[in-house]
Amino acid sequence: MTDDQQLRVSKIRNGTVIDHITGGQALNVLAILGIDGTSGDSVSVAMNMPSDRLGKKDIVKVEGKELSQNEVDVLSLIAPAASINIVRDFEVVEKARVERPSMVEGVLECPNHNCISTEDEPVQSRFAVVDDGVRCEYCDTIIRDDLPAHILAE
Amino acid sequence: MRHDHIISAKQLSRADIEAVLDHAADIAADPAAYADRHADTLLGLLFFEPSTRTKMSFTTAMKRLGGDIVDMGSVESSSVKKGESLADTVRVVEGYADALVLRHPMEGSAKMASEFVDVPLVNAGDGAGQHPTQTLLDLYTIRENAGFDDLTIGIMGDLKYGRTVHSLAHALTNVDAHQHFISPESLRLPRSVRYDLHQEGAEVREHTELESVLPELDVLYVTRIQRERFPDESEYRAVAGQYQIDSETLEAAKDDLTVMHPLPRVDEIAHDVDDTDYATYFEQAHNGVPVRMALLDMILGGEPA
């Protein structure tokens, strides 16, 4: 790739670069992170970029945000190959691959409206990560598809 | 099993099941020997949904062990009506009782409640979720009548919402039963239950009619199809009629078929079956007492498991 063809995405000063997102999943990643642009911080998204490892990958750069473990956990479910780079003062200070967790807590909402975790009780939603999805620890409901649609509203 | 919460049939191993059933058989053989076993024990009953058999048999079981019950009463007359959370209710009541029995209309309620209490908590039905003590008395009845060896069982009716079915199906994987599920398409087993059965390597077959599979069965477990699961009365009638049995239906069955039902029944088993040797549902209901006595005795520390 020549300089002219280079991705025209500015570097960020402080924040997170999420690379190697499964092609086409960048907008879902933003949804997981609760990022819709209204905060005023700069957000760059590149989708379906060529990648040796993935064929096609997405990249998200977010100014002024470092990810919580919960966010990383859900991220790993839709973008298992993602790498997370923490940037401070234009330098990558930390680089990590996501790991598939055994449990995600307080991030997804159970789609079963009759599940106790959807009520006004002092518990967080809790999902075990199973072979082909996630499973509510309270009512056993399995979510296979479209995890981002089940992300709890902030 | 001492001080354990009993939340789901999934937590019960074959050894746990056999231990409870053996203990229940000992109790049934000589109930008087257990009459003072838990003289100072109070069992807290929290029934957020109506119940006749489960509540009365837990009450009977605790009293036959020499203890007593404290009962929250109906939801209408309790602080739940004022908007108290379930987590708060159980934390209060655990101060009054040595063990709790909870029935609640929402799935996962017993699991959540158990996270807030230190006394043993028994799930007596959580929405369409689980009903493990019903399963234990079902297993007791099956073991007494058909045995666990090379068992072929048909489970018929509302398999989607029937919590007794979900609990029983999972427990039966412990004895490698051949399980046939008979229901209308709209009420077949939920995905989560099929997933579990698959994970356990269970031999499971699903059917929409009883006729073809009836002659193979050692046990036929019938459940009620509830009218409120259907959008209108005519659709309900069309479906429900196909899952009713009478003595004529059973002419195609083995002579030693055991017919079970968690009760209450409406019209899914005709009254002319009651007088046949097949009918085992009243015996099944009676077994709730020794089985719940055994379970209470074990979680209250009477018998190491």
Automatic annotation (TrEMBL), chain A:
The keyword Zinc applies. Its cofactor is Zn(2+). Residues 7-99 form the Aspartate carbamoyltransferase regulatory subunit N-terminal domain. Binds 1 zinc ion per subunit. It holds the Pfam family PyrI. InterPro entries: Asp_carbamoyltransf_reg_N (IPR020545), Asp_carbamoylTrfase_reg (IPR002801), Asp_carbamoyltrfase_reg_C (IPR020542), Asp_carbatrfase_reg_C_sf (IPR036792), Asp_carbatrfase_reg_N_sf (IPR036793). GO terms for molecular function: aspartate carbamoyltransferase activity. It comes from the Archaea. Zn(2+) binds at residues 110, 115, 136, 139. Residues 104-145 form the Aspartate carbamoyltransferase regulatory subunit C-terminal domain. Keywords: Metal-binding, Pyrimidine biosynthesis, Transferase, Zinc. Contains catalytic and regulatory chains. Belongs to the PyrI family. Involved in allosteric regulation of aspartate carbamoyltransferase. NCBIfam families: ATCase_reg (TIGR00240). This is Aspartate carbamoyltransferase regulatory chain. The gene is pyrI.
Automatic annotation (TrEMBL), chain B:
Residues 150-298 form the Aspartate/ornithine carbamoyltransferase Asp/Orn-binding domain. Catalyzes the condensation of carbamoyl phosphate and aspartate to form carbamoyl aspartate and inorganic phosphate, the committed step in the de novo pyrimidine nucleotide biosynthesis pathway. Belongs to the aspartate/ornithine carbamoyltransferase superfamily. ATCase family. Pathway: Pyrimidine metabolism; UMP biosynthesis via de novo pathway; (S)-dihydroorotate from bicarbonate: step 2/3. L-aspartate binds at residues 82, 163, 224. The lineage of its organism: Archaea, Methanobacteriati, Methanobacteriota, Stenosarchaea group, Halobacteria. It comes from Haloarcula saliterrae. Heterooligomer of catalytic and regulatory chains. This is Aspartate carbamoyltransferase. Its EC number is 2.1.3.2. It catalyses: carbamoyl phosphate + L-aspartate = N-carbamoyl-L-aspartate + phosphate + H(+). Signal peptide: none annotated. The keyword Signal does not apply. Keywords: Pyrimidine biosynthesis, Transferase. It is an enzyme of class 2 (transferase). Carbamoyl phosphate binds at residues 53-54, 103, 131, 134, 263-264. It comes from the Archaea. GO terms for molecular function: aspartate carbamoyltransferase activity. Residues 5-144 form the Aspartate/ornithine carbamoyltransferase carbamoyl-P binding domain. The keyword Lyase does not apply.
